[in-house]
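Our preliminary data section would be incomplete without showing what the modeling component actually yields. Below, a chain of 139 amino acids is followed by its predicted structure, encoded as tokens that our downstream tools consume directly.
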Amino acid sequence: MDALTDKIAVLGVLVALTDARLILPDSRIIPVMMFLLILTRDFMITGMRLMAATQGVVVAAEKGGKFKTILQIVAISALLLVPAVERDLNHFLQADLSPVLPWLRWFAFGTYAVATFLTVDSGVRYVLKYRHLFTEKRG
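Predicted structure:
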């Protein structure tokens, strides 16, 4: 249940960030596509795990899956930091942090892009490793 809770939390925040246009404000399509890739991978792997469990096979978490989760959380933190710096920290510190914002936006989106790539990559690796679950005939 812990892994499922992590997925629900990450996907919930990502859908909110996508809807609020905090990922890539000038584009609606790219953030939606990135979110859909992550959502598809997570549903696919969860379904595969359930199917494997019915056959008595345990699909263990792998380093790639754990690393993508860590990177997704770092990306979410960076994406949430952008409006916090722009709206709150500027006012709180009474300083002009606008020169930092383009770099912070670049880091946040770049981290999210890498996390999306790693998400797809780990999903492909899981499917390739456990493809026998789909191809073997059951007697």
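The chain has one domain: 2-135. Residues 2-135 form one domain. Preliminary results of this kind motivate Aim 1 of the renewal.
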